[in-house]
Design goal:
Blueprint (H helix, E strand, L loop, with lengths): L1 H93 L3 H15 L4 H10 L10 E6 L11 E4 L4 E6 L2 E3 L5 E5 L5 E7 L4 E6 L3 E7 L2 E9 L4 E10 L2
Antiparallel strand pairs: 1-10, 2-3, 3-6, 4-5, 6-7, 8-9, 9-10
Length: 241
């Protein structure tokens, strides 16, 4: 009786410890699987964090590039607007309108038709607001040249109140030899002298214009090339001022 009960208790204890061992083994296994899963989760989280950081960095770089591009485009737009405003202002300032446009068109037509630009400029310069002036007087005189210096080479107006004289460069023939008369394509010098020694000088290629005021009278002269060796001079006398 005692032996049988001993065997039963020993077998019971053995089965109990075996169950405890199995449970412990299962618990260890479960803890290992849990720790492994936990570690894998941590590694995945670390990997995702690295990926998110890289994506965030890439997005930040793209944002900076887009902001720089937007700034450059805004600057380019402001520059373009400024240039457009400048061109519009220049267009309004330089392109003739109204009466000036009509006159510009007429001048262009005359030049296209072959009218000499100097002649056209002379006509325009002669167009002035009417003043209480005397009837213009036109005379001629010959210009002195290096080969033609002697004799009287002047002309006077208003009973000798004003005297006009001048000199130019000698014209040349086909062989290049100097001639007595002046060359109208070369600059000339015209001297205007009034009573009492008051005078003025004008130089350049004809036609030329010059004024001189003597005793409350303004003498306005226009010089153009006349027949060979001569200059035609027209004098206007107007009250001054």
């Amino acid at each position: 009786m005692t032996l049988g009960r001993y065997d039963y208790e020993r077998r019971y204890r053995r089965r109990m410890w075996t169950g405890v061992g199995k449970f412990g083994l299962l618990l260890v296994l479960l803890l290992g699987v849990g720790l492994f899963s936990y570690q894998m989760g941590i590694e995945q989280l670390k990997g995702r964090d690295v990926t998110l950081r890289e994506e965030n960095a890439a997005l930040s770089r793209q944002k900076a590039e887009y902001e720089l591009l937007a700034s450059q485009m805004q600057h380019a737009a402001r520059v373009a607007e400024a240039k457009a405003a400048e061109l519009e202002h220049r267009l309004q300032r330089e392109v003739p309108t109204g009466d000036l446009a009509r006159l510009t068109h007429l001048v262009a037509e005359r030049l296209k038709a072959g009218l000499d630009a100097n002649r056209l400029a002379f006509v325009i310069q002669q167009a002035q607001i009417p003043r209480n002036c005397q009837q213009p007087e036109t005379k001629r005189f010959s210009l002195a040249t290096p080969l033609l210096k002697g004799g009287t080479r002047s002309v006077s107006f208003t009973n000798g109140t004003v005297t006009v004289a001048g000199e130019g460069q000698s014209s040349r023939d086909a062989q290049g030899n100097a001639e007595s008369w002046f060359d109208p394509t070369q600059p000339v010098t015209i001297r205007i002298t009034g009573i009492g020694g008051k005078g003025t000088t004008v130089s350049g290629v004809l036609p030329l214009h010059q004024s001189l005021v003597i005793d409350n009278t303004e003498y306005r002269f226009t010089f153009v090339a006349g027949q060979r060796s001569f200059v035609d001079v027209t004098a206007d006398r107007c009250p001054f001022p």
